[in-house]
Design a protein that fits this description.
A hairpin with a 6-residue loop joins strand 7 (152-156) and strand 8. This protein starts with 8 loop residues before the first helix and ends in a 6-residue tail after the last helix. The strands form five sheets. Strands 5, 6, 7, 8, 9, 10, 11, 14, 15 and 18 form a ten-stranded antiparallel sheet that branches. A five-stranded mixed sheet has the order 20-21-22-24-23. 48% of the residues are buried. The protein is 26% helix and 25% strand. The protein has helices at 9-18, 33-42, 72-78, 87-94, 97-104, 188-200, 213-220, 229-237, 319-336, 368-378, 401-411, 414-417, 466-475, and strands at residues 22-26, 49-53, 63-66, 111-112, 121-124, 146-148, 152-156, 163-166, 169-173, 178-182, 203-210, 242-245, 252-254, 259-265, 270-272, 276-277, 283-284, 289-300, 305-307, 342-347, 356-361, 388-393, 418-425, 440-448. The chain folds into two domains: 9-307, Pnp Oxidase, Chain A; 337-451, UbiD C-terminal domain-like. It is an alpha+beta fold.
């Protein structure tokens, strides 16, 4: 089977190893140790991708991978932008890329093939047992073992046939015979399932559980509803990806996926799920019944690799990826609205890449700052679980929280510069959402720009000019090492 396609995990892993970005870990236990080591890794100054093998209770070669998009070199390579990326040039390069990928996705439509490495081993119901694979219990407070963290859940639009990939948490249920899939109501996958329920009473579903991290990126960000994530990955990679049709549902799976399953969901087939350590940094879930997949078939390669992307208190496994991608997508979205003067956007890791959004603008007219705030807070790519949107002047680096807070303390008058939007798009994973409540939230708009009417006479910032800094740095380079 080929391992050299445009989105081949094993080819990418070889490159990562050659670049010193892959670290092997032998002998960790699936029960908490893989999760704890992953957490320690992505809180290092430069995390690596971690490959766990020799996992307690499982044969050598049955592996778990985490940390694949946790630094700019790894993420740059996953996005097809090369291995030598830094934070700043990655963000700059990405500024227009998500829009470009969405616009050209149809030119890279996925191709269907009849064979693939994923078909090497096929298990059918009732022999299905998801615990044949080293599914981790990631956090000490988790209510079970979660096979779906870095997954790509495949659904199909009943009316148009469009395929969607989404990253949703999945807990192993029924001693390995099934898995619950926790999809927020507003997500494309949930909309697809509801329509199938209305029309057929059940919905087909398939899940890739190990794959090139590009699928994780596409499944985990807001790709436009009329664009298939498979085609989006093709545009990202510069060549169409290949898929194989599931033998039960016909849903397409990556042809070189490591591990996958397919089956059916019905409205009344639910299992208690959670709690689970979520991207907000808190445990989420109260054992409420969640849609559960009646797994008909499991596919896997020899020596399969389960892709893990466990969330938790930021920074976590994919918070860097989400921050960079969301920042680029929101920047592009704001510019496409016609809003002038956008200088930078950063969706901070401290807010999980969603809840804290900083927008830097060059003010051009009265109300410009407030307009930027309201637009950014409600863009489709930014609306979910946003809690604070802060707009700063172009002299403030939106990636530097110290500078942002400095701007807020000197340029924000709380009585007039903080506004609250109510009944906006929240989430069940929000720690402020009570069990059984509808998941609304509210969000604060903070204008941390100089008052427009005082741009000409606002106090000057007390710092050396760029020219003076450059001059003294040339004369005394040893001061900066």
């Amino acid at each position: 089977m080929s391992e050299t396609g445009p989105a081949s995990l094993r080819a990418w892993l070889r490159e990562a190893a050659e670049r010193g970005e892959l670290q092997s870990v032998e002998g960790a236990d699936w029960d908490l140790e893989i999760g704890a080591l992953s957490q320690v890794n992505y809180r290092r100054s430069s995390p690596k991708a971690l490959m766990f093998d020799g996992i307690a209770g499982y044969p050598q070669g049955s592996r778990v991978l985490s940390g694949t998009v946790s630094n700019p070199r790894l993420l740059g390579s996953v996005l097809g932008l090369g291995w030598d990326r830094t934070d700043s040039d990655l963000v700059e390069t990405l500024a227009a890329k998500p829009g470009e990928w969405a616009a050209t996705a149809r030119d890279f439509a996925a191709t269907t093939v009849t064979d693939g490495a994923i078909l090497s081993n096929v298990t059918s119901k009732p022999e299905v047992n998801l615990l044949d694979f080293p599914v981790p219990r990631w956090h000490e407070g988790d209510g079970g073992r979660y096979i779906g963290t870095g997954c790509a859940v495949v659904t199909r639009d009943y009316d148009t046939g469009r395929i969607n990939l989404g990253a949703y948490r999945m807990q192993v249920q029924d001693d390995g015979r099934s898995a619950s899939v926790n999809i927020e109501a507003g997500k494309h996958g949930a909309q697809h399932l509801r329509r199938w329920f209305e029309a057929e009473g059940r919905a087909p579903i398939a899940v890739s559980l190990g794959h090139h991290p590009a699928y994780l990126v596409a499944a985990g960000v807001e790709v436009p509803a009329d664009v298939s994530e498979y085609d989006y990955v093709g545009a990202m990679m510069g060549a169409p990806v290949r898929t194989v049709a599931g033998q039960v549902t016909g849903l397409p799976l990556p042809h070189d996926s490591e591990l996958a399953l397919e089956g059916w969901v019905t409205p009344d087939n639910r299992r208690p799920e959670g709690p689970f350590g979520e991207w907000t940094g808190y445990y989420s879930g109260s054992r409420e019944p969640i849609l559960t997949i009646d797994v008909e078939r499991v596919y896997h390669r020899d020596d399969p690799i389960l892709l893990g992307a466990p969330p938790g208190k930021p920074p976590h496994d994919y918070s860097y990826m989400r921050t960079v991608m969301k920042s680029a997508i929101i920047t592009d979205g704001l510019r496409r609205t016609g809003l002038p003067g956008v200088r930078g956007v950063w969706a901070h890791e401290a807010g999980g890449g969603r809840s804290l959004l900083i927008v830097s603008i060059e003010q051009r007219y009265p109300g410009h700052a407030r307009q930027a705030a309201y637009l950014a807070a409600q863009l489709p790519s930014a609306a979910y679980m946003n809690r604070f949107t802060v707009v700063v002047d172009s002299d403030v680096n939106p990636r530097d929280l110290g500078e942002v807070v400095w701007a807020m303390t000197g340029r924000t008058d709380p009585s007039i510069d903080i506004e609250v939007m109510k009944r906006t798009w929240g989430s069940r994973v929000d720690p402020l959402t009570l069990p059984g409540e509808i998941a609304f939230n509210s969000r604060a708009i903070i204008d941390a720009c100089r008052p427009y009417e005082r741009l000409g006479d606002f106090p000057q910032v007390a710092e050396s000019s760029d020219e003076l800094i450059a001059s003294v740095t040339r004369r005394w380079p040893e001061v900066l090492g």
